[in-house]
Q: What sequence folds into this?
């Protein structure tokens, strides 16, 4: 074979020659952007990210019990911090990959007004909110209701989702006409996909800082290290931003 052709072939094969795999626990709110990022990550690096989606609180329990995840993309910053302190992950790898945005959403166009005053009405029966003990978006929703002085009024009508993914399903199916969900679940390409929404001002709840950390099983894993770097890059950040997150 011609030497130049050999070099060209080697260059083509190089990205996959040392390709690895990493198991990633991903906060439910980050499902759509992470699916896109993982596909682009594999295309660009050859490494594969095996994704599992769920509530950050549940992932912590699984990680503490020895679940073989290599990387955690949490819905908060406190869980990765705790994981680092407890020796369940490498604290030096922790960084904020996104800052989440809470939104009050309805599948019905025109149902939610721009100021969220629909919350004060009494003509709706249910509102979907994620479990505040497990899901940071659920905690932010309760903090918002407290700030508005509406907790006692709204509490009896809350339908609680185990995580923000299930919470979105309650609202998307119409079982609850309203839901406090992640903006990323109802936005794509910088626009609301359907329905109506009130983007909750960040001042009404604690900042939803979402941190990533390499877990103990992922230490020394080239794919885990590559993914952490990739999440900081321009391609990943463009995808993240298109779903309504900031940094």
A:
């Amino acid at each position: 074979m011609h030497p130049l052709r050999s070099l060209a072939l080697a260059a083509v094969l190089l990205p996959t020659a040392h390709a690895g795999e990493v198991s990633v626990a991903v906060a439910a709110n980050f499902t759509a952007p992470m699916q896109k990022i993982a596909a682009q990550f594999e295309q660009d690096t050859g490494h594969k990210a095996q994704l599992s989606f769920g509530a950050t609180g549940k992932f912590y329990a699984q990680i503490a019990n020895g679940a073989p995840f290599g990387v955690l993309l949490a819905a908060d910053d406190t869980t990765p911090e705790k994981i680092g302190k407890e020796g369940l992950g490498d604290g030096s790898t922790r960084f904020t990959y996104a800052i989440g945005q809470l939104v009050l959403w309805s599948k019905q166009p025109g149902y939610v007004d721009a100021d969220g005053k629909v919350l004060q009405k009494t003509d709706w029966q249910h509102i979907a909110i994620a479990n505040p003990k497990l899901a940071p978006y659920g905690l932010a929703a309760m903090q918002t209701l407290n700030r508005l002085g509406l907790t006692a009024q709204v509490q009896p009508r809350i339908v609680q989702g185990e995580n923000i993914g299930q919470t979105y399903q309650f609202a998307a199916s119409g079982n609850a006409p309203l839901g406090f969900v992640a903006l990323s679940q109802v936005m794509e390409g910088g626009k609301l996909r359907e329905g109506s929404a009130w983007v909750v001002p960040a001042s009404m709840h604690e900042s939803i800082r979402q941190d990533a950390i390499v877990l103990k099983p992922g230490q020394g894993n080239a794919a885990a290290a590559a993914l952490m770097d990739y999440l900081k890059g321009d391609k990943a950040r463009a995808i993240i931003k298109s779903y309504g997150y900031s940094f």
